[in-house]
């Protein structure tokens, strides 16, 4: 999408600053995500702004909500529920994980942090890369609308608007803002590639679906260097993922969960352990601790893949000074998750 926007910015003679912005969700991200974005922005000569939740990433937020629900249960003397799958009492009175109906992951860690940065502008158009093909809910999205959370009050749209109503209101909001001599903040969300097919996405990146399938075949056959060399998108697609989100996402397909767990063993084990301790499954009726993976073998495979990613400069080595500082400040439990021996112990624990 960024290449598309740059071309439009140039050919349409748009004024104003053009930059990319992303919200980093911490250790739940796929390795190399920020590196991929930075490399793409460097190639296109576009600034990349990275925002983060000050109190920690996605996994930290899940744990924070988990503890909040436990405290509320204790304070209100709420009767705990029983997990028949694990044979343990559930913590709290409801799941702490985000979900399709409780998407605080998107709201708090992405949208809110992006908006915090965008508030510095008097007028802003935030282009988002969602596509209608991805889901029925996205197919109902407007092509553009007022970005209510940061727009001035007089320009805010009704929450009950449908797509066409949002678009009409946005057009009126622009006119009203100009009539008022640009008083207040005009903020719009533009779903710039809403009508694009997946073929158009790959074409914009200079590749095809057929090329992706060929590279996936090479990857599965063990030719990792050949599979990833010169690939213009994130390497997770070549590894087998159908969409790039968190390495383990509450909205992911079963296939993407399996692939994410295989390539992000430490994250998988950390979240599976949270399942086991709390009695709540990561997805409704679907447990990460039920994913079938040989942890020892997969750790070795993952290390080999990471070595290739380093060699191709798709991920960066951490600065030694940063690592030392991290060791001093990171909780002991998190540091322990970096050790392969601990991975094996957790793998045994969640399978019992």
Detailed description of the structure:
The protein is mainly α and 352 residues long. It has 16 helices and 7 strands. It has helices at residues 2-11, 33-44, 58-76, 104-118, 136-139, 163-179, 198-204, 209-220, 224-228, 235-239, 254-263, 265-278, 295-311, 320-329, 332-336, 340-351, and strands at residues 19-23, 47-51, 82-83, 88-89, 123-128, 144-146, 186-191. The chain has a 3-stranded mixed β-sheet with strand order 5-7-6, with helices on one face. β1 (19-23), α2 (33-44) and β2 form a beta-alpha-beta unit. α11 (254-263) crosses α12 (265-278) and α12 (265-278) packs parallel to α16 (340-351). The protein is globular. The relative contact order is 0.11.
Topology of this protein?
Elements: H1 2-11, E1 19-23, H2 33-44, E2 47-51, H3 58-76, E3 82-83, E4 88-89, H4 104-118, E5 123-128, H5 136-139, E6 144-146, H6 163-179, E7 186-191, H7 198-204, H8 209-220, H9 224-228, H10 235-239, H11 254-263, H12 265-278, H13 295-311, H14 320-329, H15 332-336, H16 340-351
Parallel strand pairs: 1-2, 5-7
Antiparallel strand pairs: 3-4, 6-7
Helix pairs in contact: 11-12, 12-16
Q: What is the CATH fold-level name of the largest domain?
A: Rossmann fold
What are the low-pLDDT stretches, counting only 5+ consecutive residues below 50?
none
- State the name of the first-level CATH class of the largest domain: Alpha Beta
Tell me, what's the shape? globular
Number of strands: 7
Proportion of residues in β-strands: 5-15%
The helix-strand sequence is: HEHEHEEHEHEHEHHHHHHHHHH
CA gyration radius, whole angstroms: 22 Å
Strand order across the largest sheet = 5-7-6
Question: In this structure, how is the largest beta sheet organized?
Answer: 3 strands, mixed
């Amino acid at each position: 999408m960024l290449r598309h926007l740059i071309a439009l910015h140039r050919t349409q003679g748009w004024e104003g600053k053009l930059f990319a912005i992303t919200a980093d969700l911490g250790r739940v991200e796929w390795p190399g995500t920020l590196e991929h974005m930075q490399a793409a922005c460097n190639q296109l000569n576009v600034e990349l702004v990275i925002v983060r939740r000050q109190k920690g990433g996605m996994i930290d937020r899940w744990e924070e909500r988990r503890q909040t629900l436990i405290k509320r249960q204790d304070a209100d003397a709420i009767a705990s529920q029983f997990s028949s799958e694990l044979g343990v009492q559930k913590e709290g009175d409801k799941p702490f994980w985000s979900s399709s109906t409780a998407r605080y992951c998107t709201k708090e860690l992405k949208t809110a942090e992006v908006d915090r940065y965008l508030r510095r502008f008097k007028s802003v158009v935030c282009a988002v890369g969602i596509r209608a093909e991805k889901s029925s809910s996205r197919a109902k999205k407007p092509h553009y609308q007022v970005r209510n959370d940061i727009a001035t009050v007089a320009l805010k749209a009704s929450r009950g608007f449908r797509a066409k109503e949002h678009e009409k209101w946005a057009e009126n909001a622009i006119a009203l803002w100009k009539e008022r001599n640009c008083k207040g903040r005009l903020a719009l969300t533009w779903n710039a590639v809403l009508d694009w097919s997946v073929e158009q996405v790959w074409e914009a990146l200079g590749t095809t679906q057929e090329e992706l399938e060929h590279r996936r075949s090479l990857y599965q056959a063990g030719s990792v260097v050949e599979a990833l060399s010169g690939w213009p998108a994130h390497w997770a697609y070549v590894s087998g993922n159908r969409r790039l989100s968190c390495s383990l996402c509450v909205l992911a397909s079963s296939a993407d969960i399996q692939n994410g767990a295989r390539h992000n063993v430490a994250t998988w084990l950390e979240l599976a352990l949270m399942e086991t301790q709390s009695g709540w499954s990561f997805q409704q009726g679907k447990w990460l601790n039920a994913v079938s993976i040989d942890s020892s073998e997969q750790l070795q495979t993952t290390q080999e893949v990471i070595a290739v990613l380093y060699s191709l400069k798709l991920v960066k080595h951490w600065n030694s000074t940063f690592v030392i500082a991290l060791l001093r400040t990171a909780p002991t439990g998190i540091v322990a998750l970096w050790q392969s021996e601990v991975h094996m112990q957790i793998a045994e624990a969640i399978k019992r």
